[in-house]
Design a protein that fits this description.
Blueprint lengths: L10 H16 L4 H8 L3 H9 L18 H12 L8 H10 L7 H10 L29 E9 L6 E9 L5 E7 L4 H4 L1
Antiparallel strand pairs: 1-2, 2-3
């Protein structure tokens, strides 16, 4: 039942939720916890206990600026056309504006395409695949080493020594180290 705030819930669903909460309460569960499990607030539970009927009248008419079915179908057709199939809605709206056409706003394009599940990947190319690099795993000593440079303070302010440390990943033991006066790639190599 856990949806956005202000949703309408049918009476049968309210009765079922109240029955589940009462059953959980009879099995020594706190009502607040049971309400959270069902997906309603404790205040909503208390309100439903007194009256299950929703007293809201709701809007009598639809929104005046709602896109018609024809406009929604035109948005889908344009977004799937060869010219615009590889473009995102904000680019489509910009290109249409360059051509002197206005179908709907950018947010309306996004909304319609989201409802039709066309926002993910519409192009001819394959959808991008995110591949993680294969992790390096050491199963024994001296298979993988790691190294780092650490700054060591000296007795002179602003002067540092550079500790080059090599460590075995498996055993976490120090394999080698050296200290230099400056940081250089040749030293690490």
């Amino acid at each position: 039942m856990g949806h956005e705030r202000g949703r309408r819930v049918v009476v049968e669903a309210k009765e079922e939720a109240l029955d589940l909460i009462m059953e959980a309460s009879a099995n020594s569960c706190r009502i607040k916890v049971a309400c959270e499990d069902v997906g309603i607030d404790l205040k909503t539970h208390n309100r439903w206990k007194h009256d299950l009927i929703d007293k809201r009248n709701g809007p009598l008419t639809g929104p005046a600026n709602k896109l018609s079915e024809n406009v929604q179908n035109e948005i889908v057709a344009i977004a799937n056309s060869k010219k615009y199939v590889d473009l995102s809605p904000w680019k489509i709206v910009a290109k249409l504006a360059d051509d002197g056409k206005y179908i709907a706003s950018e947010s309306s394009f996004y909304k319609v395409l989201k409802e039709k599940k066309l926002l993910a990947h519409r192009g001819r190319s394959q959808a991008p695949v995110k591949k993680r690099p294969i992790p390096l795993v050491a199963t024994g000593p001296n298979q993988i080493w790691s190294w780092d440079i650490t700054y060591l303070k000296s007795s002179i302010r602003g002067e540092y020594f550079y500790l080059y440390l090599f460590m075995d990943v498996f055993s976490r033991k120090i394999v080698g180290y050296d200290i230099f006066n400056n940081e250089s790639m040749e030293y690490s190599a």
